[in-house]
Each structure stands twice: as structure tokens, then as C-alpha cells.
Amino acid sequence: MSIDIVNLLETLVGLAATLIALLAVYRSLTIGKSLVSRVYRTRAYWLAVLMIIFAAFSLVPTTSTIESDISDILFFMFLFALLIFIDSNVTVGREIDFFHKDVLHWHALRIPLFAVIVAGTAVAIVAIIDSTASTTGIGIVVYFAILGIVFTYSGATMLAIARRTHDRTMKIFVKMLGFAIISYVLFLTLFIPLDAIYPSLGDVVTSFIAIAAAYFFYRAAMSLSPIGHIEKEI
Amino acid sequence: MASTGVPSLDNLLGSDGYPDKSAILVVGAPGIGKEALGYWFVRSGLIQGDYCLYATHRPVTDVLRDMKGVGITTERVPEWIASSGSPLKLDLRDSVSISFNIKEAVHRNQNRRVRVATDVLSPLLVLNPLESMYNYWSQLLSDIKQQDAVIFALAEEGMNPPNVLTTMEQIFDGVIEMRLYEQGLSITPLFRVKKMLGLPPLHGYFRFSVSSTGMEVVPNVH
Lengths: 234, 222
Fold this sequence. Notes:
The complex is a heterodimer of chains A (234) and B (222). By secondary structure, chain A is mostly helical. Helix content of chain A is 82%, strand content 1%. The N and C termini of chain A lie far apart (56 Å). The relative contact order of chain A is 0.14. Chain A contains 7 helices and 1 strand. Chain B has 222 residues and is α/β, with parallel strands linked by helices. Chain B has one domain: P-loop containing nucleotide triphosphate hydrolases (Rossmann fold, 3-Layer(aba) Sandwich). Helices cover 34% and strands 28% of the residues of chain B. Chain B has a 10-stranded mixed beta sheet, with helices on both faces. In chain B, helix 4 packs parallel to helix 6. Chain B is globular. Strand 1 of chain A pairs parallel with strand 7 of chain B, so a sheet runs across the interface.
């Protein structure tokens, strides 16, 4: 495959992912606007914020240093938004639950969790800025270890909510969100090694994974509330 | 007739609201605004001097916060049977005491007009067999309707299978459905009166919106 065709394909696939993400933003905002309860509305709006960052992240190239810095900032913003979004989901899960149980003690642990992420991000930013320091590698490793622990706990809480709830829409929502996050993590982890081995083709492959992530986020947005179709009157 | 607390809905239902001695079921997704409809119904009763009872599986503080969120002042509040924050506790695992407490409170106020709002239907349907719940609710509604009372129950769409909700709809005099609908690219909250005692079938969908100044129901034109 010639380099031009690969570049064109990469651009088209990246645009498709961005368009799907923007459609998810629109759907989340319109659904959020229609909901009366504050907790459900907040969850819809946070999904919209997450998808805006996702779309921006898909659009920013990483060819120059400045673009790479913007990409890093968007990455940190995405992780923060994801954590707040998960928090809003746990609140919804608690609202839906008849016994209003604090699943896996999330509400007791959420503040320390956010503090850990803030501290971890600070360590990572210092490590990136001072890239010549001998501690850079350790800083990045510590950051990803913290992320791993926090998001494993978040994922476990979401799964526990999905298992506990009787609400079918919530179950579908958590499933779609799970697929979206797995696809996105796959995209982020495969991007660097594939880019190193097959620079152009690697971008195309990971862009297709980004499309899958955007699609599952869109399906999650459409599962924020059951949506019907108007029956024709006879 | 018992005013719904929403003038545009009163007009839709024949200008006066829900029929006397009736049981109304509102089915809808979580967060769509079913509770708000219940709050306006209770508020309207409190203003008219009716005895109002709110039986909920949520803490009283949560319900009061939600009421304020839709612009309802809480100087006048109903009597509560709630999971916490009320003298009478509501335990979903004890359906017998829920029924007993509701009936007892209603009978204590037999000389007054009574309004009962509750959100325990869906949880009880999840926690108990359908047949026993059908009999339980038939009995409870029939007992309360012996008096000048209107019962307003909420059911969560998605929480109970559609056939379970269809079965339960049979024992209610009025059924209102609230949900989001896709109309082209837009998503709109719509309202449908599936049946209402004393009214011919109401065809069509109605748009509804809830703000801090109240609730508005208008015919859906698309």
C-alpha cells in the first residue's frame, strides 16, 4: 500500500471516529437536557464532556513538540473526566438501588481516590517536563501503576453495580461503557508499539480501534435512558 | 376530582385532574420526571387541605432535596413513611407492614380527602412473586379507595419486565407513560395517557417540560 493511500485512510478513519464522538456529544446533551433528575442529568453531561475530549484527542496530530504537549494535556483531562464520569455513574447506581447501598465503599473512598490521581498526575507532569532527569522513567511507571489501581477499582465498582441493579438500561449502559473503555485502552496501549514497528499502518489499525471506542461510547450515550419510537396512530 | 397540580395536565384530563377514588400508575424511566409529577400532585393536595401521605423507599432528605430541585417549597410537607427520616420506617423486605401502615394512616383520616403517593411498587415487584404482588396491590388499592382517596404510584421502566408492568396496569384506573422518544435527530420527553377512568382513550403524545416554575404539558407536534 502506498504511503499516500495509508495517510488518506488514516485521516478518513480518524475523522469517522471524531464524527461518531461528536454525535455521542449531541445525544448526551439532548438526553441530559430532557432528564429532570439532577443525578441523571449530571451523568449525561459528563459523558458529553468526556466525548468532547475524546474527539479533540483524535483530531490533534503529534508531529511537533507543541502538538505532543497538547495531546498529553488532553490525555490527562480525559482521565480526570473519566473518573468524574464514573463517579456520577456510581451515584446513579446508588439512586437506582432500592437499598441505596454504597457499592464497594465508593462514596467513602472517592475523595482519597481523586487526591491520589491528582498527586499521580503531578508526578507524571514533572517527569515529562524534566525528561532528562534520572527519575523520569520511575515517575511514569508510578503514574501508570496508580492509574491501574484506581481504574481497576472503578471498573470493579461499575461491574458490581451492573450485577446488583435490576435496571436493564443500566446493565446495557455499563456493558457498552466497558467495551468503550477496553477499546480505548487497547488504542492507547497499541499505538506506541505499532507506531514503532509499522509507522503508517500502525496508525490506521489503531484508528480503527478508536472508531470502535467511539461507537461503544455512542451506544453508551444512547443507553443513558430508554428511548422509544413513536407508534403510528391507527 | 383531584387536581394533578399541573394546570395543563388537568385540562388534558378534562379540566379537573385525576378521577375521585382512583388509582393512578405512572410508568417511566429513572430520572424522566415521574417523581416530579408525584410532588406536584402532593403539593396540590397540601394546598387544598387534603391529607397527603408519601410512602417511599428513599430517605426523606433525598425527597425534600428533589422537591426543591423542581421548584416546590417544602414549608408544607406530607406525612412520610420512608426508609429514614420519618417516624414510620419503610422496610421493603416487609411488604405486610408497608400495606398496614398506609391503610392505617388513611383510615385515621377518613373524614378528609386523602392523597397517597408511593414509589414502592417496582421494588416490591422485584423482591416478590408477581402473583402475590398482584393480589397485594389489588387488595391495598381497593381498601384505600373505600374512602375519598386518590393513590398515585410510580413504576420504573426497565426495572420490571414489560409483561409484569402490563399485568399491574390492569388494576389501576389510570396509566400514564413518560419516556424519551427519538424524533429524527432530536430526542424529546413525551407523555402518553394509556388509560384514564371516565375518559375516552386519549390518542397521541404530549410534550412535557419541568422547570423551577412548574410542569407544562402540550400536544406533541412534529
